[in-house]
Amino acid sequence: MKKSSTFCILFLMFGFSCALWAQDSLPKIIIGDIHVYESADSIVGEGIQGNVSYDASTNTLFLNDAVIPSLWAYRTDGYFKVKLSGNNSITRMISCNDSCAFFGPGTLTLGNASVGTALDCARTDYLALTEGATLEITASDYGIFTFYDDIWDSIAHYPNLVVDNSSLIVTAPYCCQFIWFWWLSECHVVAPQDFEYQLDSWTYLSSGTIHDYLEIRPGTVGLPAHETADWRAWGVDGGIRIDDLSGNQTVEVVNILGQTVCRSKASCPNTFIPLKTGIYFVRANNHTVKTVVN
Fold it and tell me: By C-alpha distance, which of 251, 261, 254, 262 is closest to 284?
C-alpha cells in the first residue's frame, strides 16, 4: 500500500512537470503551419507573403504588405500587439491573450465570405485599434467573436472594444458578439445609424450583437472635448495635469486597454497624476477626456 501511494505521488509529480515543460515549450504564435518563438527576420512559409516578423519580448507581430493564411496568438496571458504597415491580409485569426491591439497606420483585411468566424478572441478582455489602424472584417457567421467563457478561472469577464482614431468595418451576419463596453475616441459610428451609445457607461444600448454591418470611422470625437467639461485635463511629460476640479471630486484614469491605472479623490482644484508614456482616458464629474502622456 505504501509503495502504491509513493508511485502515485511520483506519477502525478512527473505529469505536472511535463505539463509545465509543455507550456514553456509552446510557440508564442502560429502563422499558417509555422510555429514561431522569435523572428527578427521575415518569416517565410507556404501561403506567407510580404514582410512578417515577431518580437517575443514585446509580444508584437509586425506586418508590412503581408498576406497570411491564418494566425493563432497562442499565449494565454499578456498583451498581444499587431503593428500594421501598408496593406495586409489574414484569412482567419485566433487570439488567446488577455488583450489584443492593432496599431496603424496600415490596413488589415481579415476573413472572407466563406470564413465562419474571422476574428476569434473568446478569451480576450480588451480588443483595441489605435494610431490610425484600419481593420476590415468579412465573415459568413461572426465577424468578431468575443464571448468569454469562464471554464478555466470561473471569473466573469466583460469584453471591451477600444477604437481610438481608427477605422473598423465589419460585414457579417453577426458583426460583434457580446461587446460589453465601447471605448470610442476621435471616431464615430457611421453604421448602423440607430446605434445608441451611452457615453457615461460606454455601452451600446440595443443589444450585445450588431447584425449585418458595422462601420466606425475617425472624425467626430466619441468622447467630449476638454472645453465641454467644467474642468480641463492634458498630458505633460511624466503624467497628467487636471485643473478646475472641485474639492473631493473622484478622478479615474484608464489606459487604452480599459484598465484603471488610478482612482482617487482630488484634494485641490489643480492636480498632477504621474503616469508612464501612453494614451489615457480621464473621467470626473460624468465627463471623459482623452489625454496623451509623452
Answer: 251
